[in-house]
From TrEMBL:
UniProt keyword Transcription, yes or no: no
Annotated organism of origin: Halorubrum glutamatedens
Keywords: Cell membrane, Membrane, Transmembrane, Transmembrane helix, Transport
Protein name: NCS2 family permease
Keyword RNA-binding listed: no
C-alpha cells in the first residue's frame, strides 16, 4: 500500500466524501490563506520581547521559528487526534494583547507573559479533558461572547494604523491623522493596504500574504533603484539567518518564578476567555461551510479540536509565542472540499516547509507586515452583526466591550467592562434572574481588581 492509500485510509477520506487530491488542494489553500501569521506574529511580539545581545530583527526570526513550530504542532494534533480540516496558529489580537497590553502596558516581563500563556494552555487542557466546556460557556454573558471579536478587530485596527503612521500622537486630541503623504513609509503602507483589500474582495487565495510580499518587494525595488536610501523603506541591514531559539524557548520557566498573583490571574483569565470563545466560535463558523454541524447547530465531538487548540497553546508558550488558536481562514480549505485531518496534515507540512523561508522574514519592512493587522481587524468587525442592539443589557455590555478595548488599549479592560455592565443592566431592568450566580461573582471580582489596580495597590 502506497503512502497515498495509507493516508487516505488513516483519515477515512472516502468515508467523509472526499479524496486525496481534494484534501491536498484544500490544505495548500488553507496554508496560503493563514501563512501571513509567519510574518506578522514575529513583528508584533518583537515589540515586547527584547533579548540582551540580540538585535530586533534577530528576535523577529526567533519568534518566526517559534510561530512556525507552534502552528505545526497544534495543527498536527488537529489532524491526527481530531481528524478535522482546521489550521491553527498564534491568534491575532491575543498577540497584540500579549505585546502592547501585558508587557508594554502593564510592564510585566515577557517571560511572565509567556508563563501566563502556558498556564492558560494547561487550564484549557484540563477543562477540555473533563468535558467542562458547557459549564465554562455559561459563566460569561452572551453579549460579551458575541462582541469580543469586533472589539479585538477595532483594537487591531488602532494598532495597525499607528504602525503605518496613519494615526499619530497629538497633545490636544491624543491622536490625529499623520503627515501621510510626506512619509514614504505611510505611502507604501497605504498602497499595499489598497492592493490587499482589492485581492481580498476578489476572493484571491492568500490575499494577505500576497499583499505583504508585494508591498515589501516594492520597497526593496525602490531602494535598489536609488529612489530611497537603505533604512528608509527597507531594513538598514540584514543579519545572518537566526535558527537558534534557545534564548526564547523555555523562557516561560523564568516567568513562573516571580509573579504578582492578582494581575497574573487577570492576564491568564483574559488569554483563556478570548482563546476559548474565539476557538469555539471559529470551529462552529468554519464547520458550517463543511456541513459538519448536527441538527442542533453543534459540532459533534467538539472537545477533540478544542484539545488541539489547548495543546498548541501550551507548546507555543514553551517555544516562545502567544496563544495558538483555530483560524477562520480554515474556511478557505473547507470550501475547496477539505473534510478530514488530511487537510490539516498538509497545513502542518506547509508550516514546517516554511522554516526554509525564515531568513526572508528579516527582509520584510514592518509597514508591510502590519498591513495584515489592519485587514484582519476589518474582517473581525462583522461580529457586531451578532449583537441584539435592541436589548439594553446586550447593547451596553457589547458596546462597552467593543469600544473600551481600543480606547483603553487593552482586550482585558474591554472584556471586564462588558462583564461588569451586563448584570448591572439586567438588575436595572428587573431581569436579574437571567444572570447566573457565576456571572455575578466574576463581575464582583473584576470590580475589586480594578479598584485595587487603579489605586496603584497592584500593578
Amino acid at each position: 500500500m502506497g503512502i497515498v492509500d495509507t493516508l487516505t485510509a488513516r483519515f477515512d477520506v472516502e468515508g467523509h466524501g472526499s479524496d486525496f487530491r481534494t484534501e491536498l488542494v484544500a490544505g495548500i489553500t488553507t496554508f496560503l490563506a493563514m501563512s501571513y501569521i509567519i510574518v506578522v506574529n514575529p513583528f508584533i511580539l518583537a515589540e515586547a520581547i527584547q533579548i540582551p545581545g540580540y538585535e530586533f530583527i534577530e528576535v523577529v526570526q526567533m519568534i518566526a521559528i517559534a510561530t512556525i513550530l507552534a502552528s505545526a504542532a497544534g495543527t498536527l494534533v488537529m489532524a491526527v487526534y481530531a481528524n478535522r480540516p482546521f489550521g491553527l496558529a498564534p491568534g491575532m489580537g491575543l498577540n497584540a494583547f500579549f505585546a502592547f497590553t501585558v508587557v508594554i502596558g502593564l510592564g510585566i516581563p515577557w517571560q511572565t507573559a509567556l508563563a501566563a500563556v502556558f498556564v492558560e494552555g494547561l487550564l484549557f487542557i484540563a477543562l477540555t479533558a473533563v468535558g467542562a466546556r458547557k459549564y465554562v460557556i455559561r459563566l460569561f454573558p452572551e453579549p460579551v461572547k458575541r462582541s469580543v471579536g469586533a472589539g479585538i478587530g477595532l483594537f487591531l485596527l488602532f494598532i495597525g494604523l499607528q504602525e503605518l503612521r496613519l494615526v499619530v500622537p497629538d497633545d490636544a486630541t491624543l491622536v490625529t491623522l499623520g503627515a501621510v503623504f510626506g512619509n514614504p513609509w505611510s505611502i507604501l503602507g497605504i498602497l499595499g493596504l489598497g492592493l490587499t483589500f482589492a485581492l481580498w474582495a476578489r476572493g484571491i487565495t492568500g490575499a494577505v500574504i500576497l499583499g505583504i510580499l508585494t508591498t515589501a518587494l516594492s520597497g526593496w525595488l525602490l531602494t535598489l533603484g536609488g529612489v530611497f536610501e537603505r533604512g528608509v523603506v527597507t531594513p538598514e541591514s540584514l543579519p545572518a539567518a537566526q535558527y537558534d531559539i534557545t534564548p526564547l524557548a523555555g523562557a516561560f520557566l523564568e516567568g513562573l518564578a516571580d509573579i504578582e498573583p492578582l494581575t497574573f490571574t487577570l492576564v491568564v483569565f483574559t488569554f483563556f476567555f478570548v482563546d476559548f470563545f474565539d476557538t469555539a466560535g471559529t470551529l462552529i463558523g468554519v464547520s458550517q461551510f463543511g456541513d459538519f454541524l448536527d441538527e442542533d447547530g453543534d459540532l459533534p465531538e467538539m472537545d477533540e479540536p478544542l484539545m488541539a487548540d489547548a495543546v498548541g497553546t501550551t507548546v507555543g508558550a514553551m517555544l516562545g509565542t502567544s496563544t495558538v488558536t483555530t483560524y477562520i481562514e480554515s474556511s478557505a480549505g473547507v470550501e475547496e472540499g477539505g473534510r478530514t485531518g488530511l487537510t490539516a496534515l498538509v497545513v502542518a507540512a506547509g508550516f514546517l516547509l516554511s522554516l526554509l523561508a525564515v531568513p526572508v522574514v528579516a527582509a520584510i519592512p514592518a509597514y508591510a507586515s502590519f498591513i495584515a493587522v489592519i485587514v484582519v481587524g476589518v474582517m473581525m468587525l462583522q461580529g457586531v452583526t451578532e449583537v441584539d442592539w435592541s436589548d439594553p443589557a446586550w447593547a451596553v455590555s457589547a458596546g462597552l466591550t467593543v469600544t473600551v478595548m481600543p480606547f483603553a488599549y487593552s482586550i482585558a479592560d474591554g472584556l471586564a467592562a462588558g462583564i461588569v455592565a451586563y448584570p448591572l443592566i439586567k438588575v436595572a431592568t428587573g431581569e436579574y434572574d437571567d444572570v447566573d450566580l457565576g456571572q455575578y461573582a466574576i463581575a464582583a471580582l473584576l470590580v475589586v481588581y480594578y479598584v485595587l489596580q487603579t489605586r496603584d495597590v497592584i500593578l
